[in-house]
Write a structure and sequence with these properties.
This protein has 341 residues and is α/β, with parallel strands linked by helices. The protein has a single domain, classed as TIM Barrel (Alpha-Beta Barrel). The strands form 3 sheets. An 8-stranded parallel sheet has the order 1-4-5-6-7-8-9-10, with helices on both faces. Helix 5 runs parallel beside helix 7. The protein starts with 11 loop residues before the first strand and ends with a helix. InterPro entries: Metal_Hydrolase, TatD-like, TatD-type_Hydrolase.
Length: 341
Amino acid sequence: MAVSKLANDIKFIDIGSNLTDLMFQGFYNGRRHHNPDLDRVIERAKNGGLEKIIITSGNYEECVQALKICQEYDPEYNFLFTTVGVHPTRTRVNCSKCDEHSKYYMNKLKELIKKNPKRIVAIGEFGLDSERTQFSNMSIQEKYFELQFELLKEQNLPMFLHMRTSFSTQENKGEHNSNSCFLKFTEILNKYKYLWEREKGVVHSFTGSVNELNVILDMGLDIGINGCSLKSVENLSVVSKIPVDRLHIETGLIDLNNEFIDSPWCDIKKTHSSYSYIDTHFPEVSKPAKWIENMLVKGRNEPVKIIQVAQILHKNLNCNLSFNEFSLQVYNNTKRMYFNI
């Protein structure tokens, strides 16, 4: 069963999609279970109201891969775009060998931006992550969060920011709890505000508190929401406070290609408090081995599901807008932020 085309007046932009992941080539946990189906995923997205997709890149190699996908499936530069930056959990591998290597790596990122001005629409994904310090400790993360502001000195691009805090002090480390991580995140952003205050940016996949939300908004940054932002009653209470004109929507976290961890895909599950607010469901096979060409794979998030995020938010924000009006407002927010339209 194919995904039917939505009405023309419903439009979405996915600000954070994982189209570089090997699952779209049929690989799950290192084993191939079906043929590549990225073409079908993109077709479903277009039928589902997606006007543009921004593919999240977490390092140089992933950005190169994203650019290849963009060129193959969107040679006219209308639909697929990407970001360039180093995800905080990848800073130890990609940036910390020595200062000279780090400079070389940043120069490679700068060259990508210069050569691909029509494709690269944001600096990121970059920021801090105290939840997964086993991949890169906080001192390295902080150093290379700051280093990447160099990319903003030469390019007028908005930011695509990562902020993930743990809710307890890291075991056996004792140095960076959630509050100190968020404070460091805002401290670094304020230090370099002169570089980003015009183009601004989005803190994506937001899962923080109301206080953190207000701090981010007061700084002039916007908020990105996906399924990971909508798991609990507490999450829903926080997102209900987001001004509609500061909101963006997305379908996924950076998955790290299973390179480091099986990080969660931001699918909205039946166990999530937000699930009951969903009106639109899609035909799915129960596991990859049962793949059928025109059906989704359970647990593999893809851009067509952006409508579910929008439906949940529309019902929780009390914005006095119809669903179409709400979706158009969010769509226009992202056009202004990442496409200067």
